[in-house]
Amino acid sequence: MHKEAVHNTIRAIVATDFEAVNEFIVEQLHSNVDLVENIGHYIINAGGKRMRPILVLLSARSCGATNDDAVKLAAVIEFIHTATLLHDDVVDMSAMRRGRPTANEQWNNPSSVLVGDFIYSRAFQVMVRIGNMDVMQVMADTTNVIAEGEVLQLLNKHRTDTSEADYMRVIRDKTAVLFEAAAYCGAIVAGAPTETQQALKAAGMHLGMAFQLVDDVLDYDGDASEMGKNIGDDLAEGKPTLPLIHALQQSSGADKTLLEQSIINGGPENLDQVIRIIRNSGALAYTRQKAHEQADLARAQINTLPDSSYRTGLLQMCEMAVARVS
């Protein structure tokens, strides 16, 4: 099944909840400061597949949730994700996301940072309304780990000695932990048994790892119009992601030197040559294999849940994560 069709099938499973989440997000973006609303709506309406909110909904409903806490929680997760995007684009000096100018490009860096802060704090206001201390604890810990992941990624920039383990820690802390929180908190608000909560927590983590690994393949092997960002952005920013790390380990001589200089200097000047070396090294196939391994681990956890359309949706998310490069 084509990835867009898979996404549509998944979203249809929670269609009513999904619409409620979108309505709640718009409602919660209200501010007495016009610039806050303008930037908030700009980034929220930029597209994106809302995979994290859908993960909340599927997890909660698969555990029998019947109230609207899952809808509010899905909005919380989307707000935190949106805030990190606003801040990421400033840190990375990105000019394009989801096929159009980033907020910092459209306005300026200070506005993006401050509106990101507003959206973060609005997420915690909504969490207070949910009133579940376990959810508050998970989300407080999660946002703290995300911040550490951002700093780790910053420290790894332009470093040629970044290991696969270093990279895995960054994507776990920076990206996968929010998927983990989405699935875990969905189970918590549903009042699921501890073993079910832990299964969904693990599934979310592995799913997030799979999505990020595939994103990092697409940075060297994707379609800019489909990705909504420029090919080679990671290289331009001096980010040593797994395809580049693996290619560096497999290369020697002039190729190795070129890769090292590209990491150190950043910029897109040698992108075509770097892509050639990465493809010839088998690094893309290696990274795809790692993504499939993570998706399989997520499936194993999801398969412990009772059979339902929501469990099917969760399994389809695993399929969608890796279908983008299969």
From TrEMBL:
Cofactor: Mg(2+)
Molecular function GO labels: all-trans-octaprenyl-diphosphate synthase activity; metal ion binding
GO biological process, one term: isoprenoid biosynthetic process
Catalytic activity: 5 isopentenyl diphosphate + (2E,6E)-farnesyl diphosphate = all-trans-octaprenyl diphosphate + 5 diphosphate
Keywords of this entry: Magnesium, Metal-binding, Transferase
Gene3D superfamilies per UniProt: Farnesyl Diphosphate Synthase
Pfam families membership: polyprenyl_synt
Superkingdom of source: Bacteria
Keyword ATP-binding (UniProt): no
InterPro entries (alphabetical): Isoprenoid_synthase_dom_sf, Polyprenyl_synt, Polyprenyl_synt_CS
Its EC number(s): 2.5.1.90
Protein task: Supplies octaprenyl diphosphate, the precursor for the side chain of the isoprenoid quinones ubiquinone and menaquinone.
Family (UniProt): Belongs to the FPP/GGPP synthase family.
PANTHER family, A to Z: ALL TRANS-POLYPRENYL-DIPHOSPHATE SYNTHASE PDSS1, GERANYLGERANYL PYROPHOSPHATE SYNTHASE
Stated name of the protein: Octaprenyl diphosphate synthase
